[in-house]
């Protein structure tokens, strides 16, 4: 039976003002990433509690393309995150990397192909397929749309939940993916395309059902109109603020991204924030942004999908 | 003239392509399709296919069917092709012909015993740019071709897959060597090895260096060095690792150079081509090879690439797997 889970559903406003840090990663090594993560956490005044027993880290492994394409989280970045946690808490801290099967991707292949099995062996962390984990149903409403969300027990029971997303352009309906969209991947139900008619609301519902403590963006290689080594580590405890920052970096007006606005209204965070570290503009001018032509093609394709032209032509 | 009755077994990516093309060939009559996927069969029915089966053995019993297109996973080629031949159906078999030489030989033996025709699907052989290269070689205008460079690098089975609106994962059989017979070397390598053999004759020696960028049991990159009995040496570069698509052959001869490319069209061009001709230019070679197969059946001519071609390609691939060079 579905129930309300106060531990997961609770939303709280932690700060009068949210902080987002922007740090340059100097190189492509795990050590460089670790230093950048540590600095990004210090800048927002975040300290991992030393009594943590079970931590989960959610990378973005949307498909089988590795970090060099900018589309999935670099396993070196995750390794650096693991070291940061264990140095702060204990070398024995129980850490799990979590991801779920998706419409076009299976976790078991992604973990192997993208180098996560090596990380698991080297650091003694578990690789968890949330689609195969025990979960509990939770009823959540987002923007008036009701959802029954399966909350995996491993996420519910963790005392530290860290999201490590990418900044990417994605489908026209939601424009970019970063912190809030990454939690969509915690939904154990594999055929996620079924949520697409209410994708914006579903993203927010998932974030209401599974509240993460911290978001650290792996922006070392980003995926814009092409991949680029941006060298960015970005951290915040506010997923709305960090998504607003990501949208600005990617050249998308955050007010035109419905799930960010819904998340703000639902109390998941704030759309204004204090910049810490390097200025956001430093990364924004370096992001491989869409030009007018690409934006036109994206909109034309959306119209073709809506009108059924792509189906008629056998393009889908 | 009686139309050739066609059946398609397997409605995955290539099977769907054959389905669309079969409906456009004048002297072919697509009678039935078979697949395990209900939605694939529904889609076929919506396109006008009257008979659909979830079991291909039922399709093979249909007396109106003269020829079968086998577009199944590689490990199922042997069984399906043999059963089709036993049912006296001509066979169009997708490449690679089988997982290994022994399976390919068994397929040929069965088709010969039942006096049915067998063609292996190699669309590059029907691609205008690559046919022109063959003409240039044969005309002598390039002199002796000393070096050939073939490149086929793409996302291979990892291209984004969708079945209508819903994306679908890469089928699990693609990850299992015992079902595929190998990785990119057998999958994309068979295309280039076949066409280079068409240009330069038989392979006398071949070596390979295999890569595993994506930590798979199967190789996702391969570089082969092959010597042909015409004296030409070829470098064959293969990859499943890239989101970009590159398919080309470059020839360097004593009198000149030539290159053939197969390039995906832009989205705008694809839409225009689909609206005007019903198929994208990228897939014209697939349409032409099917048209040619149907013509061979109506004129009682043995098709090429034949089963023997398929075996020779697999022999070269098998030798390349055996002769691996390790670069440290």
The whole-angstrom Rg of chain B is: 19 Å
What is the overall number of helices of chain B? Answer: 12
Number of strands of chain A: 12
Biggest sheet strand line-up of chain A: 4-3-2-7-10-11-1-12
How would you classify the helix and strand content of chain A by structural class? Answer: alpha/beta
List low-pLDDT spans of chain B.
Answer: none
Mean pLDDT of chain A: 90
Number of strands of chain B: 14
Average pLDDT number of chain B? 94
Radius of gyration of chain A: 18 Å
Structural class of chain B: alpha/beta
Uncertain stretches of 5 or more adjacent residues of chain A? 4-13
Strand content of chain B: 15-25%
- List the quaternary state of the chains: heterodimer
- Largest interface, chains and sizes: A-B, 29 and 26 residues
The main β sheet of chain A shows up as:
8 strands, mixed
CATH topology of chain A: Rossmann fold
Give the distance, in angstroms, between the N- and C-terminal Cα atoms of chain A.
38 Å
Global morphology of chain A: globular
Beta strand % of chain A: 15-25%
Helices and strands of chain B, in order, run as: EHEHEHEHEHEHEEEHHHEEEEEHHH
Describe the protein's architecture and organization.
The complex is a heterodimer of chains A (316) and B (328). By secondary structure, chain A is α/β, with parallel strands linked by helices. Chain A has a single domain (18-313), classed as 3-Layer(aba) Sandwich (Rossmann fold), CATH 3.40.50. In chain A, 35% of the residues lie in helices and 23% in strands. Chain A has 13 helices and twelve strands. Chain A has an eight-stranded mixed sheet with strand order 4-3-2-7-10-11-1-12. Chain A has a two-stranded antiparallel ribbon with strand order 5-6. In chain A, strands 8-9 form a two-stranded antiparallel ribbon. In chain A, a hairpin with a 3-residue loop joins strand 10 (214-223) and strand 11. In chain A, helix 8 (199-209) packs parallel to helix 10. The longest helix of chain A has 15 residues, at 292-306. Chain A is globular, with a radius of gyration of 18 Å. Chain B has a six-stranded parallel sheet, with helices on both faces. Chain B has a six-stranded mixed sheet with strand order 10-11-12-7-13-14, covered by helices on one side. Chain B is an alpha/beta fold. The model of chain B has no long low-confidence stretch (mean pLDDT 94). Chain B is built from twelve helices and 14 strands. Helices cover 37% and strands 24% of the residues of chain B. In chain B, helix 1 crosses helix 11. Chain B is globular, with a radius of gyration of 19 Å. Chain B has helices at 13-22, 38-46, 56-60, 77-86, 101-113, 128-139, 177-180, 184-187, 189-200, 267-277, 284-298, 307-322, and strands at 4-9, 28-34, 51-53, 67-70, 90-94, 118-121, 145-153, 162-163, 166-167, 203-211, 221-228, 233-239, 246-253, 257-261. The chains are: A alpha/beta (316), B alpha/beta (328). Chain A binds chain B through residues 63-66, 69, 101-106, 109, 112-115, 117-118, 191, 193, 297, 301, 304, 309, 311, 313-316, and chain B through 16, 20, 158, 160-162, 164-170, 172, 175, 213-216, 243, 267-268, 270-271, 274-275.
